[in-house]
Amino acid sequence: MIKNILNKLPRKHSKLLENRDGGPSASSRSNFGVNSNATAGTNSNPISGLNYGNRLQSLLNTKENGSAGPVPYEALPSFKDVPNSEKQNLFMRKLSLCCVVFDFTDPTKNLKEKDIKRQTLTELVDYVSSANGKFNEAVLQEIVRMVSLNLFRTLSTQPCENKIVEGFDLEEDEPLMDPAWPHLQIVYEFLLRFVASPETDAKLAKRYVDHSFILRLLDLFDSEDPREREYLKTVLHRVYGKFMVHRPFIRKSINNIFFRFMFETEKHNGIAELLEILGSIINGFALPLKEEHKLFLVRVLIPLHRPKCIPMYHQQLTYCITQFVEKDCKLSDTVIRGLLKYWPITNSSKEVMFLGELEEVLEATQPPEFQRCMIPLFRQIGRCMSSSHFQVAERALFLWNNDHIENLIKQNRKVILPIIFPSLEKNARNHWNQAVRSLTLNVRKIFSDVDPELFEECLLEFQEDEARDEETKTKRESTWKHLEEIAATKGLINEAAPVPCRISPNTPSE
């Protein structure tokens, strides 16, 4: 009996060695490949593929470290090659296969595996587009896991010295293109089709497309690749439309991005796309507007005029602002006063943008709201009309080309003309740009034709003010001359002494 037992020991030891050296246990690991996974293909449990991607990823990492043989990352059968009863299981396995993330910074690595994954992702897009049954919870979980592993990552950024925020030129500065985009694009397309699919039950999917998922999706808007931001814009808009329960959270989260941008960083690549989404959301607001929406206008949209990089998103911001005014014309007074609060002082190109936005707001403004803000408004327009920068002066004078604005001005000419008349006269006499002088003469003619008596009164008052200014200037010169004579008679002035600078009232201070 003892002999029989001893004879068994080597056989047991050989089995241990066989397992340790990669015998049956190694072959069992290779079953994660598709060709040797026939038993998994017939498994009726849809969760059987959940950890497939994790195991493949660990095997790939092992291969990179040089401690294992070839990785069994092989293409799975096509959906058309399996019966309908097995398609959902195959869908799960394909999702798991796509959970492996490759390095695209090195175009020579994992070429075969990348191509297999790309083809698999394309098949997944087609499957989701043509699905004819509701996605169950296990499928939803695996879909969100695959999307999260592929999309949610640390974004690449260009060195700071390559960027000048204030002078960023959208046409000349090359954005950073992600080398993984051909792969990421298919994942985004898959996510878009999944969210838009009628087979995606919002009540069930909201457990996985949750607040954490939405926040990480919003973080990707800072991507420097404009193609990615464009897809994100479409996806987030579909998420907002599909998951009504998440709408307040999405708006609040976007507001937080704006606050961080305005008051901390003044740097974010996706402000324009986020504003474009909000423009569509604002367009759908019901009337009367809720107080929270009005606060969003006052606390977020209007202060967004302050950052220096406003040219990057001004068009989308203007659209959002005008949407509010068109929905509730009483907000025009609030908007105009907000624009005046953040009006640029030394940035002429920004001033031209503000004048363009002002015209769009005034287009939707009604007489009662116009009358509330017209005095501070036309004080600023008068300063713009007499600007030495011809584009600013020209853009201000173009306001009279808008029939609605011209009618508002004509109705309130008794208040407006006295405010802007000095700018009109000075432009007509002294402005260096011929186009500005011509536009000024046209505006003067409009007022003189509509109300010649008022025009003459303003002209007379302007001439009287000029005479008073001239008299004051003459008195000042006479006083200085008298003081110099007194100082000379008392020997207080010698030839080497500096003469005090005489500052005229029209001389701008430094």
Automatic annotation (TrEMBL):
Residue ranges with Polar residues bias? 25-48
User: Which GO molecular function entries does the Swiss-Prot or TrEMBL record give?
Assistant: protein phosphatase regulator activity
This protein's superkingdom? Eukaryota
This protein's record includes keyword Cytoplasm: yes
The segment annotated Disordered runs over: 9-49
An example GO CC term for this entry is:
cytoplasm
Q: Sorted alphabetically, which Pfam families does this protein's record hold?
A: B56
What are the recorded Gene Ontology BP terms? Answer: signal transduction
UniProt entry tagged with the keyword Cytoplasm: yes
**Main function:** The B regulatory subunit might modulate substrate selectivity and catalytic activity, and also might direct the localization of the catalytic enzyme to a particular subcellular compartment.
Which family does the record assign? Belongs to the phosphatase 2A regulatory subunit B56 family.
Q: What is this protein called?
A: Serine/threonine protein phosphatase 2A regulatory subunit
